[in-house]
């Protein structure tokens, strides 16, 4: 099959035909209906977040007011200031960034290599090992929590960031490998074949053909990895004994105890915790839309 | 061919050996000095404490800070190493640490765990330590404030909270009625008066129900037993060999509770959630039951600005008047590394007057297990008379060895069925008793 | 399309095989170091009485015989979980695909919509849990308010054993952003030239969707289906935070029961037995899917 570099229309500027995923968007009415529908679903999906932000700006009595009030009165922006002073927010942010950064780098790098092996190289044990890979997702982690902790204790890694980062460099988990493998399997084979005939090594094929073609899936797993490490509660909880090594997900627990939750501060801190991931997502999403079509095959 | 076979065999053996090794690496770490990094500081005697995070209010954090300062100053030779976990994840953290070989001299306890901790030799009795101590004796403590199993004391509560009713005093005054507190003083505060109160004050405002009483906490067994004692029964027989949940008194009590739900005197579960507004504190129910700790919630939710707070002990039932002692204790290791610093910490934290005054700031009229320290109040609307009235009628909830499993697996379900009214109470309790007896004998 | 080159013998194939093994080595090493030990340990624990507070005592098959023989809750939690899986997996898959199609349309401002649709996935569970009460509570919930305004009957959503599972299915829809993003990324890999060719042939919108988009997306539909089943069988967080399994055990899902055994009742041995039974169940479903995949999943790179 031959591949052409497609011209992709990016914005609506006139009556030009838009053709993405085979759907054509014509006319003002269609677009208007689309916006309305998108916004309607959006509103429903965003209800929890709207409420979360509203709560983060209220004073305590208003949180419990009846009937529930959506608009804070007054707007207590100071809640955010108070929230980050109640625990060492910036220290925990730093720790979270270290753990998330290392784990994400490890996962994206190693998962893309491993997925390349599973998708584009043939070897006799491939199917069996792939089955083993999938099976690691099928056992609830609750029952491996204790032995895994014991293992890291024996390695002397407790109270370090190692248990939260080193495993990421070993494939980063079945989910990411499986996802990338599925993407790699959708890539046409012609280019690697041609490259191999040209005498290219497989590592070069991975670097120069597979990776450039895979910006979208790599962006997706980057976002997923960041998110799962950013919000991970159990890992930092059990491996970090020293308060100064805690992460933001643990910090959020600061606003709750046995009977009592400071909802406004909790929501303020949650909102702040969420923002970096949101920004990352917004920045990464231009790559989501970057399939082979945009990349083309420059330089070959 | 032979070469291939042998290689495969080699791979298999290597795989088996590898798996065996990997498995061995995960076996729980034997508890032998896994924490000996402390020996580096040879001059100081170290105690290891497992505690919860001082979270929630600023007062709590401050108190914890003050206590550490107080202790460090008083015992310069002792070093305290605390590992802390937030409430969410407390068990996970504790269990993984113990499996990893950590030994703690003092562990913050939870009454549902007590039998298991003893059974597995994690904690030991305090009686010898109390006897050997020259500053205190066993008689200094309220009996109900001791976490005791088979005659041995495993915990001396650092905070005790009794349960009481909180009612909307403004509403009662507006109605020109006798307050529950006055009824209590006149000897008229009984279960019928409670029910009448709920009925009296259940109303509707702009199409929205105002409930006379918020019954939700009754689902908690440790609260339920308080009612059951007043009705002359409890949930187990004397030696925990059988459930008596299907006896006459329990059936009558459940039916009494059920009418609150059936008649709409109390909100159904799910009509609001714990975080959400149907509560005493925003005036949507006229009364509720809670421990003394509830003062913090009342203040947080701003209730004192909306109406006057009324407090009264639980009513008198057919067999008398009770309040349940909610105990928060620390437990002591069965094989402490350094007894002196650990016991010093235990004593100071659990029942010294200094600690009591420091932690009093958290609020809630609580008091430690030692008799000479009085309930502390923080807010002007707190009724010290009621606190003093509750003190002599406190009792401790007796814990069966399988309490946690029983509550989560059987009790909660039966309670939900009672509230939903899917089956007659006799039938629900019959099944509950049968399954509970099977559980404790399994 | 590439040549059919199956079973190519010779040094090239052997080189390729060794390269393949080398590429997957990071995962294999990680599996042997970090994963297989804990998994094996949990198998061992499943044959023991293990409170974690002290060592494990060998029980033989007792945990398993109790599980299959006398544990009423085992059956009930399986029922709850299957109920949830059967409704939730297809619904989420369908909704996620639909959302991805919607979000793939190139109109101004679509970037913002994509971010907003993903926002619920990023939101910490504790924050969204607060809101479910606002939506579904019986007395003042938004859902009931809307139903009432439309003259429809209202429910006590979170305390009616007949509908609580459905509420969880509905709540699950808030999390489709993850699968939708995967589909969205996949849609970009559908070669445009196919559509253009089809356009010349005069195929209409539906035909192009049915005969080009869907087949090209099957690897990712397969991925989301497999992962959906694996993940949904292990549904836990919502029931743990919002209903704690109630009312009357109607949301006591399998893994929540397993968690209770492990960390509430201190029965790690029994929890491990439960976990391995679930492992086998999920394995069976996954194997069936892998087999069926040959019938409907289309790989560009298959050779």
From TrEMBL, chain A:
Cell location: Cell membrane
Cross-referenced InterPro entries: MetI-like (IPR000515), MetI-like_sf (IPR035906)
GO biological process, one term: transmembrane transport
Primary subcellular site in the record, as a coarse category: membrane
Organism of derivation: Caldilineaceae bacterium SB0664_bin_27
GO cellular component, one term: plasma membrane
Name of this chain's protein: Carbohydrate ABC transporter permease
Membrane topology of this protein: Multi-pass membrane protein
Stored Pfam families: BPD_transp_1
PANTHER family, per database record: ABC TRANSPORTER PERMEASE PROTEIN MG189-RELATED-RELATED, ABC TRANSPORTER PERMEASE PROTEIN YESQ-RELATED
Family, similarity comment: Belongs to the binding-protein-dependent transport system permease family.
Domain ABC transmembrane type-1, chain residue ranges per copy: 93-284
Organism domain of life: Bacteria
Transmembrane segments: 32-51, 63-84, 96-116, 128-152, 164-184, 205-227, 263-284
Keyword terms of this UniProt record: Cell membrane, Membrane, Transmembrane, Transmembrane helix, Transport
Automatic annotation (TrEMBL), chain B:
Protein name: Extracellular solute-binding protein
Regions that span the bilayer: none
SUPFAM superfamilies reported in the protein's UniProt record: Periplasmic binding protein-like II
InterPro entries: Bact_solute-bd_prot1, SBP, TAT_signal
Alphabetized UniProt keyword annotations: Signal
Gene3D superfamilies to which the protein is assigned, alphabetical: Periplasmic binding protein-like II (3.40.190.10)
Signal sequence extent: 1-24
From TrEMBL, chain C:
Bilayer disposition of the protein: Multi-pass membrane protein
Transmembrane segments: 21-45, 82-103, 115-135, 141-159, 166-187, 212-233, 240-259, 265-288
Protein's UniProt name: Sugar ABC transporter permease
Keyword terms: Cell membrane, Membrane, Transmembrane, Transmembrane helix, Transport
Gene Ontology CC annotation, any one: plasma membrane
Compartments where located: Cell membrane
Species in which this protein is naturally found: Caldilineaceae bacterium SB0664_bin_27
Gene Ontology BP terms: transmembrane transport
Any coiled-coil regions, as ranges: none
Key word Membrane present: yes
Domain named ABC transmembrane type-1: residues: 78-289
Pfam families documented for this protein: BPD_transp_1
Stored Gene3D superfamilies: MetI-like
Family note: Belongs to the binding-protein-dependent transport system permease family.
InterPro entries: ABC_transporter_permease, MetI-like, MetI-like_sf
């Amino acid at each position: 099959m031959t591949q052409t570099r497609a011209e992709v229309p990016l914005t609506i500027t006139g009556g030009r035909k838009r053709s993405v995923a085979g759907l054509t968007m014509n006319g003002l009415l269609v677009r208007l209906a689309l916006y309305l529908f998108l916004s309607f679903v959006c509103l429903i999906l965003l209800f929890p977040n709207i409420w979360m932000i509203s709560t983060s700006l209220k004073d305590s009595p208003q949180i419990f007011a009846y009937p529930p009030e959506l608009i804070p009165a007054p707007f207590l922006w100071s809640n955010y200031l108070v929230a980050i002073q109640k625990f060492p927010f910036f220290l925990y942010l730093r720790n979270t960034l270290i753990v998330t950064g290392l784990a994400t780098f490890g996962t994206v790098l190693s998962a893309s290599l491993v997925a390349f092996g599973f998708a584009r190289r043939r070897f006799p044990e491939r199917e069996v090992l792939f089955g083993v890979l999938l099976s690691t997702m099928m056992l609830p982690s609750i029952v491996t929590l204790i032995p895994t902790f014991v293992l890291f204790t024996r390695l002397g890694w407790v109270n370090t960031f190692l248990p939260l980062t080193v495993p990421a460099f070993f494939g980063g988990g079945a989910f990411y490998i499986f996802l990338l493998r599925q993407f790699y399997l959708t890539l046409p084979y012609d280019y690697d074949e041609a490259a191999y005939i040209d005498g290219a090594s497989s590592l070069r094929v991975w670097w120069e053909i597979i990776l450039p073609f895979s910006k979208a899936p790599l962006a997706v797993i980057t976002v997923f990895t960041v998110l799962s490490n950013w919000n991970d509660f159990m890992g930092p909880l059990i491996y970090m004994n020293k308060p100064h090594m805690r992460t933001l997900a643990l910090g959020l627990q600061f606003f709750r105890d046995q009977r009592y939750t400071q909802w406004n501060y909790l929501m303020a801190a949650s909102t702040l915790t969420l923002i970096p991931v949101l920004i990352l997502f917004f920045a990464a999403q231009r790559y989501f839309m970057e399939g082979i079509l945009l990349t083309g095959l420059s330089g070959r | 061919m032979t070469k291939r076979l042998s290689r495969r065999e080699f791979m298999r053996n290597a795989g088996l050996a590898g798996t065996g090794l990997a498995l061995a690496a995960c076996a729980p770490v034997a508890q032998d000095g896994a924490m000996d990094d402390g020996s580096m500081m040879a001059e100081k005697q170290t105690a290891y404490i497992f505690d919860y995070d001082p979270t929630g209010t600023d007062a709590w954090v401050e108190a914890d800070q003050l206590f550490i300062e107080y202790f460090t100053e008083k015992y310069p030779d002792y070093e305290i190493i605390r590992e802390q976990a937030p409430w969410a994840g407390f068990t996970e953290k504790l269990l993984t640490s113990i499996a990893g070989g950590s030994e703690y001299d003092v562990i913050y306890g939870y009454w549902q765990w007590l039998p298991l901790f003893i059974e597995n030799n994690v904690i030991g009795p305090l009686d010898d330590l109390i006897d050997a101590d020259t500053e205190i004796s066993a008689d200094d403590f309220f009996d109900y404030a001791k976490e005791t199993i088979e005659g041995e004391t495993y915990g001396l509560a650092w905070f005790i909270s009794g349960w009481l009713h909180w009612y909307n005093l403004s509403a009662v005054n507006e109605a020109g009625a006798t307050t529950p507190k006055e009824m209590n003083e006149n000897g008229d505060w009984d279960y019928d008066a409670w029910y009448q109160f709920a009925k009296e004050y259940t109303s509707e405002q702009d199409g929205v129900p105002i409930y006379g009483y918020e019954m939700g906490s009754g689902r908690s067994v440790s609260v339920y037993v308080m009612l059951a004692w007043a009705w002359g029964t409890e949930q187990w027989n004397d030696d925990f060999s059988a459930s008596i949940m299907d006896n006459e008194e329990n059936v009558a009590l459940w039916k009494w509770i059920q009418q609150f739900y059936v008649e709409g005197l109390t909100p159904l579960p799910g009509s609001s959630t714990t975080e959400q507004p149907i509560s005493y504190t925003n005036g949507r129910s006229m009364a509720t039951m809670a421990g003394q700790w509830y003062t913090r919630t009342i203040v947080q939710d701003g209730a004192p600005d909306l109406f006057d707070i009324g407090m009264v002990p639980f009513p008198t039932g057919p067999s008398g008047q009770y309040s349940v002692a909610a105990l928060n204790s620390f437990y002591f290791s069965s094989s402490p590394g350094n007894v002196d610093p650990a016991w010093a910490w235990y004593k100071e934290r659990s029942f010294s007057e200094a600690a009591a005054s420091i932690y009093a700031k958290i609020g809630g009229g609580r008091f430690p297990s030692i008799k000479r320290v009085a309930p502390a109040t923080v807010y002007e609307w707190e009724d010290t008379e009621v606190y003093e009235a509750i003190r002599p009628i406190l009792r401790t909830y007796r814990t069966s060895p399988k309490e946690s499993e029983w509550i989560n697996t059987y009790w909660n379900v039966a309670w939900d069925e009672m509230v939903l009214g899917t089956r007659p109470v006799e039938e629900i309790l019959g099944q509950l008793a049968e399954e509970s007896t099977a559980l404790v004998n399994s | 399309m590439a040549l059919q080159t199956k079973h190519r013998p010779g040094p090239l194939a052997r080189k390729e095989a060794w390269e393949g093994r080398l590429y997957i080595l990071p995962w294999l090493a990680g599996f042997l170091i970090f994963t297989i030990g804990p998994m094996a340990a949990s198998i061992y624990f499943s044959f023991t009485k293990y409170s974690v507070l002290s060592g494990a005592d060998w029980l033989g098959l007792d945990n398993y015989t109790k599980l299959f023989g006398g544990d009423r809750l085992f059956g009930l939690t399986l029922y709850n979980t299957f109920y949830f899986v059967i409704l939730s997996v297809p619904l989420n898959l369908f909704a996620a695909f639909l959302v991805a199609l919607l979000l793939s349309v190139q109109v101004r401002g679509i970037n913002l919509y994509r971010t907003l649709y993903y926002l619920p996935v990023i939101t910490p569970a504790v924050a969204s849990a607060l809101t479910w009460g606002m939506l579904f509570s019986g007395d003042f919930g938004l859902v009931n308010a809307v139903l009432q305004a439309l003259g429809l009957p209202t429910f006590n959503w979170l305390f009616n054993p007949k509908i609580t599972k459905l509420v969880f299915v509905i709540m699950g829809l808030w999390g489709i952003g993850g699968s939708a993003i995967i589909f969205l990324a996949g849609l970009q890999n559908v070669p445009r030239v196919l559509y253009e060719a089809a356009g010349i042939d005069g195929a209409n919108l539906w035909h192009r969707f049915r005969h080009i988009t869907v087949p090209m997306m099957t690897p990712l539909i397969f991925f989301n289906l497999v992962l959906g089943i694996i993940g949904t069988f292990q549904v836990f967080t919502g029931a743990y935070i919002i209903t704690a399994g109630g009312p009357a055990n109607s949301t006591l899902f399998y893994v929540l029961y397993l968690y209770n055994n492990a960390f509430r009742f201190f029965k790690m041995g029994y929890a491990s037995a439960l976990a391995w039974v679930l492992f086998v169940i999920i394995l069976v479903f996954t194997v069936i899917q892998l087999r069926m995949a040959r019938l409907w999943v289309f790989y560009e790179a298959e050779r």
